[in-house]
Amino acid sequence: AKTIPRKPLIYLISTLNATFQPDYEFSSCTSQDFSRETNFELVKSEVDSRFLSSIGDYYRSLSSQLWSIIDDEINIKASEIFSYRPDGTSDPFSESGIIWSLNFFFYNRKLRRILFLTCRADCKTSTNDDNDNEHEGLDQNNYLTFEGVMD
């Protein structure tokens, strides 16, 4: 994995802290917790796939608007894209009942702006017990929440 340069790394960590404090703190993150995404189409495909699996037809009608808004705010072609793939120990993406999460940063150096796209799907049947089978046989009707933030 390539090392993220110091300045962008500080911005990425600061964005996580600003988004999730006071509940979570990310100062112990390192460059290895992030990846530089070199292919926007793969990022778009992952986001579209996750959203389609969770909210189906509703996302079909929303997809082009979402990407248009993101592009208007950050200029995707002029941005570096990073992903945050947490280790699953102490972050908002490892809580009980989380089915999936995604975290992408669009960093436009020229605009001096970061757009953070984060979303997670929670299981509506989830409880805080340690039932290993709680996600078996789920379909899109079992998703309780669809949380997302664009900062």
Short description:
The chain is of the alpha+beta class. Helix content is 32%, strand content 26%. Helix 2 runs antiparallel to helix 3.
Which key phrases capture this entry?
Maf1_sf; 151 residues; Protein Transport Mog1p, Chain A; alpha+beta; globular; 3 helices; Repressor of RNA polymerase III transcription MAF1 homolog; disordered C terminus; 5-stranded antiparallel sheet; 32% helix
Task: Describe the structure in your own words.
With 151 residues, the protein is α+β, with helices and mostly antiparallel strands. It has one domain (6-130, 137-150): Repressor of RNA polymerase III transcription  Maf1 (Protein Transport Mog1p, Chain A, 3-Layer(aba) Sandwich), CATH 3.40.1000.50. Helices cover 32% and strands 26% of the residues. The protein has three helices and five strands. The chain has helices at 6-20, 40-55, 57-74, and strands at 34-37, 80-84, 98-108, 113-123, 143-150. It has a five-stranded antiparallel sheet, sandwiched between helices. Helix 2 (40-55) packs antiparallel against helix 3. The radius of gyration is 16 Å and the shape is globular. Belongs to the MAF1 family. GO terms for molecular function: RNA polymerase III core binding. InterPro entries: Maf1, Maf1_sf. One of its GO terms (cellular component) is nucleus. This is Repressor of RNA polymerase III transcription MAF1 homolog.
